Here is the input.
Amino acid sequence: MESLFIIKIGGNVIDDIASSDTFLSNFASINAKKILIHGGGKIATKIGEQLGIQPNYLNGRRITDAATIDLVTMVYGGLVNKKIVAKLQSLGCNAIGLTGADGNIIPATKRPVKDVDYGFVGDVKIDEVNTNNVEILLANNFTLIVAPLTHDGHGQMLNTNADTIASSLAVALSKSYAVRLVYCFEKNGVLENVDDENSVIPLITKEKYQQLLSENKLFDGILPKIDNAFAAIQSGVQEVLIGNAKHLLQNVTIHTKGTLIK
Amino acid sequence: MESLFIIKIGGNVIDDIASSDTFLSNFASINAKKILIHGGGKIATKIGEQLGIQPNYLNGRRITDAATIDLVTMVYGGLVNKKIVAKLQSLGCNAIGLTGADGNIIPATKRPVKDVDYGFVGDVKIDEVNTNNVEILLANNFTLIVAPLTHDGHGQMLNTNADTIASSLAVALSKSYAVRLVYCFEKNGVLENVDDENSVIPLITKEKYQQLLSENKLFDGILPKIDNAFAAIQSGVQEVLIGNAKHLLQNVTIHTKGTLIK
Here is the structure.
C-alpha cells in the first residue's frame, strides 16, 4: 500500500511563527501523500478575549458554548487554516484547507449531555469518516490541511480535539494506505528521563511499554498518547511517531529523531 | 458542453438567516454542477468593531490593512463559509468551502500602489485561475463554496471583490463548461422603473441595452453590473442572470424571474 503521513501539530507550533515556518517547509518537502491536522493555539483565546467571550471550563475541559463554536470556526477554520494553506502553496505544496464539514469528511455527533453539557463538541465515529472524499482529494494530489472542527449533519459546526481528528483519519484511512501517524508536541519524544530532552526512547514496542510501565518511568501526560498510539496501531495504522516539530519532520522518513511506536 | 452554474450572493442574503435558509435550499436543489461565491455581510463589520478594527475608507472603497485581511480571512473564510457548507451538507449537497488559496484556485497579485495603497487587495488575472483543480473538484461532484479571498503565492492572503471572483471563475471555466453566471442582489432584476419591483426587464440583448441607455432608463448602480455581464458573455460565458435571491434560484433553470442577459 502507498504511504500516507498524517501529521498533527499543536497550538504551540502555530503560535511561534519562526518554528511554524520551519515546520511548514519540512512538511512541504515530504515527498509522499500527507494530511496535516492543526490546533488553534493561543490566538483563539486572545481573539476570544477581545470579543468578550469568557472561557468556560469544567474539570479542566473547555465548554464549547454558541459564542465559542463561532470563535473556533473563525479562528481555526478561517485564520489559522488559511495562513497555513497560503504558506504551503508558496512552498509548492498543493494544500487545501478543510474542516470536517467540507466534503462531509468528518461527520460527528454532538456529545450527549450526561452529568456535563460540553456544548458544541463533536464525537467522531471512525466508520463514518468519509474516506471516499478524502481519497479522491489525495488521489488528485491535494494535501489536506484539516482544522479541528466537525459538523453534526444538521447544519451545526462542532468542536473536536485535534488528536482525535488525527487518529480517526489515520485509522479510517489505514484500509487504503500504509498510514504513518505523527504527533508533534513540545518534547523530543518519549523520554527515559523527563528532564533530559536527550533521553529519547527511539522505539517502543508493546514489550518495551510494559517494561517502562513496570519501572514507573513514563512521565506525566505521555501515557494517554502512547495508549492512543497502540490503539491506532491495533486498528490498522502502520506506526506512530511522537516528537518535537522542530526536529521531527526533517527526519520523518528515516526516524532518527523522536519515538517510534510499533 | 455540460452546464455549470456560478452563483454570487451578496452580504444581505447571508445576514438574513431566514432568506439564507431558503436560498441555500433552492441552491442545493439545482440539479447541475454549481459554484457559490459569497460575500461576508455585516457580520465582518460587527466583529471588526468588537475587535476594535476601525474601517478605513478611501473614495468609498475600504482599505484592507493587516488587521482587516486577518478579519475577513476569519469571518469570510471561516465563519460564513463553514456555516454555509454545514447547512448545504445537511441538505445533501456535497459542499466544500474554499478560498482562492485552497488548491491555489485563484492566485492574485497585490494591487500595485499608485495614488492609493488599497492594502491587501488581490487583483485576479483570469488566465491564472487554476481551472485544472476546480475541474477536478467539480468532476468529483463537489460543490464549491468560495469566499471572496485570494492569495499572492508568497504566503499572503488577499481580499478580492466577490463579483470579481464570480466573473473570473465564470470566464476561466467557460472553456470547459456552458457557464450560466447568476448575480443575486436586492432587486428583482433590471427594472424599467426603479421604484417598481414588478417592472423587471426579462431579457436584455445588446440592442435592448443600447435602447435602454439612449432612453436613460437604467437606474443607478446597475450599469456596471450590465457592463460586466456583457464583458463575461464576450469572454465565453453563455448567459448572465441578475435578480433577487428570494425568487431567482427556484427558477434559475427556466428563467421566469430576473433579468437574462444574452
